[in-house]
Write a structure and sequence with these properties.
The chain is mainly β. The protein contains two helices and 29 strands.
Length: 376
């Protein structure tokens, strides 16, 4: 049974002390070692081990097989350090170059997983000469498993409202250069695309065609969309028929309410002392889509300080809100007479405020919509 690899952003370096952080806190040392791993499509440059029981500190090591099905034991694909104890869902990052060299991109091939001991120097090294980090044994028994593995593309995209004409893909892992194509989830029509190089990417924005959205019937009610990785040069001209291992994701997309958000002010904003420290209060705020409202400082030259923010309100849905409280961050110290601006940051769908990486402010003609205030 193929299984989905866990989310991995770490860059693997084989000859290091770490290679690895444990999946969970160490447990009591088991009486016997054990290794459980199943066939899988590795979609984030990693192999996931279901269970590893270590009777002493050591490593879980992954080896490739060459084109003649010989064990390529001189250069492991990846290794992860483990303390003595029982471990679940152990993630072993793999080298993309090794995956390519031995033909694991889009093709199912065997890999060997073996448990090794640690000789105490904190880094994995073994050359099959009986020295260094030798295989873990109990009597004459070693602990190794051969499973089938294929490397594919993967990523994460969440349900969201169109933000500044684009959708945001939270994470993308590509084994080769590809075209990311957003399609109507019902008829397969292309809504937008973006070319990306092989590797790991975070918070990828893909602009969508307004006419295509309108023609497909997208509106305030969520409608399905799909995201696929396709060969460069195809242009997304026809509905995707992705290769094995290609990215295939689905999410819901809706369009924002027409018009602009509004924060009524008279140009001033009162600093108040509340139960959680300093705060400002907004009244009768209109939001056109799910958003965060942030208070940004203005420096001596009149420039908006984009990050860190003075404070922000929690996530709010589209509609009119009678009262919104923005708590001032404890490490910020605005004073009476300071200039500031309120920005409405449009939620990219992940429900977390991550500006400036994502959650961009609403714009008018390419400029953030700003509500200027003086604190008093």
């Amino acid at each position: 049974m193929f299984k989905r690899a866990l989310f991995v952003l770490a860059v693997f370096s084989l000859i290091t002390s770490a290679g690895a952080q444990e999946d969970v806190a160490p447990t009591p040392t088991p009486r016997r070692a054990a290794l459980v791993v199943t066939d899988q499509v590795g979609q984030e440059f990693a192999l996931v081990l279901d269970q590893v029981d270590m009777t002493r500190p050591g490593y879980a090591v992954v080896y490739a097989y060459d084109e003649r099905d010989r064990l390529a034991d001189r250069a492991p694909m990846g290794a992860v350090a483990l303390a003595a104890g029982s471990h679940r869902n152990v993630v072993v990052p793999l080298r993309l170059a090794t995956l390519r060299r031995y033909g694991y991109i889009g093709t199912t091939r065997p890999v060997l997983v073996r448990l090794h001991t640690d000789d105490g120097d904190g880094r994995f090294f073994y050359r099959f000469v009986g020295k260094g980090d030798v295989p873990l044994t109990e009597g004459s028994r070693t602990f190794e498993r051969t499973v089938q593995y294929r490397q594919g593309d993967n990523g994460t995209i969440l349900d969201q409202t169109l933000t500044n004409g684009a959708v945001t893909v939270d994470a993308v892992f590509l084994v080769k250069d590809a075209l990311l194509v957003v399609r109507d989830g019902e008829d397969g029509g292309v809504l937008g695309s973006a070319a990306l190089a092989a590797g790991s990417h975070r918070f990828v924005r893909i602009a969508l065609d307004a006419d295509a959205l309108s023609g497909a019937g997208y509106g305030l009610e969520p409608r399905p969309m799909t995201l696929t990785s396709e060969p460069l040069g195809g242009g997304g001209a026809s509905p995707a028929s992705p290769d094995a291992g290609a990215l295939q994701l689905a999410a819901m997309l809706s369009l924002p309410v027409e018009g602009l958000p509004d924060i009524p002010t008279d140009g001033t904003l009162r600093l108040e002392l509340g139960p959680d420290g300093m705060a400002v209060v907004l009244y009768n705020v209109t939001l056109t889509q799910t958003s965060f409202i942030a208070l940004h400082a203005v420096d001596a030259d009149g420039n908006v300080v984009e990050s860190p923010v003075l404070g922000r309100a929690g996530r709010r849905n589209a509609g009119t809100h009678r009262r919104i409280v923005i708590n001032i961050s404890k490490n910020q110290a605005p004073v009476l007479g300071d200039k500031a601006v309120l920005w409405v940051h449009l939620d990219d769908g992940d429900r977390s405020f991550r500006y400036p990486a994502s959650d961009l402010p609403a714009e008018v003609n390419g400029v953030p919509l700003s509500f200027e205030v003086t604190l008093y």
